[in-house]
Amino acid sequence: MATLKDVADRASVSMSTAYQSLIGAAEVDSQTQAAVKAAADSLNYELNITIRDVAAYAGVSVTTVSYVINNSPLIKPATRQRVRNAIRDLDYHPNTTARNLKANETRMIGYAWHVAEDPIRRNPLLDLFLFELAQCAEAHGYHILTFTQSNRSGTKPYETLINTNRVDGFILSDVTYEDPRIGYLIERKVPFATYGKANGKWDFPYVDVDGKRGIQLAVEHLIARGHERIGLISWPPGLRIGDIRTQGYLDAMKQNGITVPESWIAYSANTMEHAAEAAQRILTNRPKPTAIVCANDIMAFGAKRYVESLGLEIGTDVALTGYDDTPVAELIGLTSVRQPIAAIANRVIDLLMAEMNRQRPADHTIMLEPSLIIRESSANFRRG
Amino acid sequence: MATLKDVADRASVSMSTAYQSLIGAAEVDSQTQAAVKAAADSLNYELNITIRDVAAYAGVSVTTVSYVINNSPLIKPATRQRVRNAIRDLDYHPNTTARNLKANETRMIGYAWHVAEDPIRRNPLLDLFLFELAQCAEAHGYHILTFTQSNRSGTKPYETLINTNRVDGFILSDVTYEDPRIGYLIERKVPFATYGKANGKWDFPYVDVDGKRGIQLAVEHLIARGHERIGLISWPPGLRIGDIRTQGYLDAMKQNGITVPESWIAYSANTMEHAAEAAQRILTNRPKPTAIVCANDIMAFGAKRYVESLGLEIGTDVALTGYDDTPVAELIGLTSVRQPIAAIANRVIDLLMAEMNRQRPADHTIMLEPSLIIRESSANFRRG
DNA sequence: TTGAAAGCGCTAACAC
DNA sequence: GTGTTAGCGCTTTCAA
Fold it and tell me: B292 and B262, same structural domain?
């Protein structure tokens, strides 16, 4: 392949003129432009500025240009300036692929989220999380490659991406207790960091949010508002996240000296209908509970439906809290526990960056605090 | 850098044994393993199977291996099989970066969505859309690079990605009337396809959903249910998408011989509060409208709030329809217009693939049909 | 039908 | 401080 210099030489113009001509700049008269274009054609040259063009333009070697690009302190200021000017004049941008080949890296981070067949198990916070993730990654010179992963695909998509050198590392979310991806990535020695903790047997960097604390915030808020008979709707025992939230409720109640009869707790599948039934079971207690804490926003929504079907008012007759602070919580004025999405993304990227530099910090398991967003659903308690 | 063959020679074992030893296979006795590892160490070799290792293992040249990888018909079946075995035995995977450098492509597609400061303008369907996008791209051997783009960033992020050879093309969504990204990409001759139409002056491939038709579906459904006095809540005129939906309503009413007084139409900003006020304005008409069509789900939610505050029942006293079929619509039983997300993603990727092969089909502007998801909010009409 | 070798654009050891 | 040059792993022309 010919270079820009070859074209310039053949057309008997400066490299600058050749470049200007090829980009069709108005500064160059049309006759010269035509001559240069003819020269380029005859050499079968297509405009594509490389490090060699910059070197030729600046009258230095490619090494020098490379050093300038990479901010090496070796280069004399005058030379550096000359190269910088060349880079500017030719609008040069280093080719990432070539760099990556040389460095054997991609500066790409793989991320997949779960798409369940169950439509209710969607990912309402994906837009926020992914945006933050991408932003943090970009701040470190990386980009996010989003790929697909069905429920049954296991480690396959990860394998492929690693084997074809598509990514340097991964961010995982929706981590399960015995997540096969974690074992696999550890074995393959591929850097990764997760949002969510696993079983504790593996040692790997993760960020988690204190789910116990989240529920405690909700319970304590209700107690402060004067509630004492507080029910709980949560997932049936066995699910890590559900167990943690249930425990948070039990702990908070105990700490406040409230004895919880079994009938204040109702387990529910993750649908409005089941949650509505769960609310019904709780509210048949006498005396009737005045508040219900829910393990997520969907369940809270179901509970709300049931309460309103009784002709009672949410926030006044029965207080309600959710979890996750999904858009629906804002919409229906539901007090909900918010996870610090931006902070999670930041920290998990930080952890991954450390992994990729093969320097795992001592504190590579990070626990973040949730916060309670108070809305109308728990605002005004009319003491019965 | 030494090759696997060098290591095998130094340890006086076969390449197969050398490979097995280095991956720590149980089949190789520990003494041999140690010897091979020592040889690798002394050569400063790190296991990394390249096309040259495969060639050496199969006793052919790299050219032959390359041909096999790329399914060239030139290779004799026996040779092909030998190479295939070598690839299998060494678990070889071609390095994508090297291929990309050679081919001057990345097999990456850039995609960014809008993240507005306004939290209500979130992207509740991103999880679906992005998943479908990634899936279709992967079927073509491409991956999605998600990057960030604030409201004010204009074409900058696109520029950077192009200049650094990060992507081969783009998918755009949230396209505005005079979207600067479109002009820029056309000028730079970078392949792209959009979800959403622009002003019509530019010629580029896009997929759009017939918004007029969507509203018509809603109106016709309501009329079929016996409604005649049907109001509309939409964005104030001037927004492309809003204007289309408003027009859909006007057309459908006209086609059904219903004259629409101005007071049946209320414009609203995209919040529940404004939509509630809009609903109020509509419902002060006498005789009172029995149904309200909304330009999106958020507005429908606001309208629902107002209707219920009147002690009226949605679906029985006042029918309501939304648009977008966001998760909230399902949750509250809102009849809503659904865009065919999977089909959109499929078609837009198809269009982009064609662009990247520099072969734009004649039908490169595609209009897809929405569908109406009927739920309780328009289910039972009690004729006044 | 297969192989030798040039080269994609870049980095960095080594030489001067 | 700067230049020469050998690769990174792959594809592909040209030759045999």
Answer: yes
